[in-house]
Amino acid sequence: MKNVNLNALRVFSVVASHGNLQRAADELNLSRGAVSQRIKQLEIELGVVLLVRGARGVALTPEGARCHAAMQQALAILDTALLSLAESGDRVTLHLGASTAIKWLMPRMDAFAARFPTVSLTTQTHERMLSRSLGRNEIAIWPGTAPDANPAHGSLRLTDIRLVAVCSPDFLRPDWPMGLDTLLTLPLLQDSHRRWERLIEATGWGDAHKLLNFDRSALALDAAIGGYGVAIAPGYMVDHDLRSKRLVEIWLDPEPSGDGLYVSWSKDHLGQARIKRIVDWIAAEFA
């Protein structure tokens, strides 16, 4: 086996994930030239070309794709192992989307602290589901079409995802009930899931060019609370704002999405009943 610079492998993995040298350099806090040099060094050591450079970024060669897949798997195993070594019995890490953290978890933090006073909860937000296995003191909440297929995980469906349209009680709008044809003529606030665009394309109503776009559901919902228009989001994400009367529901998607929200946890939690109690508490909050 060749002696390969592990740091160069890490640099390559970041470049491959971004498909762009400059974005990888920004993440690694290196110059673009230093990143490019380490990739060239790695290609020389391995004797293969890993990346093809183009005007819009870089693309993986077949050899680069195999190397990247192997690196992702190895780093995931290492991340899980190191995290488990560092965990203490009173620390629990919860992985979830940023908007779920803001709109679902934060309103429940006082209740969590009262129920688990000795647990130190750390949240880590992600744009995508974790590719690695969870450590023994980790829990993840993520949307999907099926339970977590990782054999190292336990998994439970928390709720069906039903989309609702919401706005401020003070927002001027036609009387309820409201059809989709009327709804799509209102000022619409859209997040990165592009749900309004898909409804406009499917029905032919409304104008996609007039949408106000945000990169997170929580930002679109906060804009709706401010009276700037109508947002669309999963029901669980707006439940607290509906109950506190900061938002009102004006439309419910009649078609079930088929998606659900799931919670996963490591089966290797060394018999710690606390992890299962936290999972049960999360499930009860969705009941």
TrEMBL record:
Top-level taxonomy? Bacteria, Pseudomonadati, Pseudomonadota, Alphaproteobacteria, Rhodobacterales
Gene3D superfamilies according to UniProt: Periplasmic binding protein-like II (3.40.190.10), Winged helix-like DNA-binding domain superfamily/Winged helix DNA-binding domain (1.10.10.10)
The name this protein carries in UniProt is LysR family transcriptional regulator
Which keywords belong to this entry? Answer: DNA-binding, Transcription, Transcription regulation
- Give the HTH lysR-type domain ranges: 4-61
Q: Which Pfam families match?
A: HTH_1, LysR_substrate
A Gene Ontology molecular-function term? DNA-binding transcription factor activity
Regions annotated as coiled coil? none
Give the family per the record. Belongs to the LysR transcriptional regulatory family.
Organism superkingdom? Bacteria
Give the matching SUPFAM superfamilies. Answer: Periplasmic binding protein-like II (SSF53850), Winged helix' DNA-binding domain (SSF46785)
The record's listing under InterPro entries reads: LysR-type_TF_proteobact-type, LysR_HTH_N, LysR_subst-bd, WH-like_DNA-bd_sf, WH_DNA-bd_sf
Record keywords: Ligase included? no
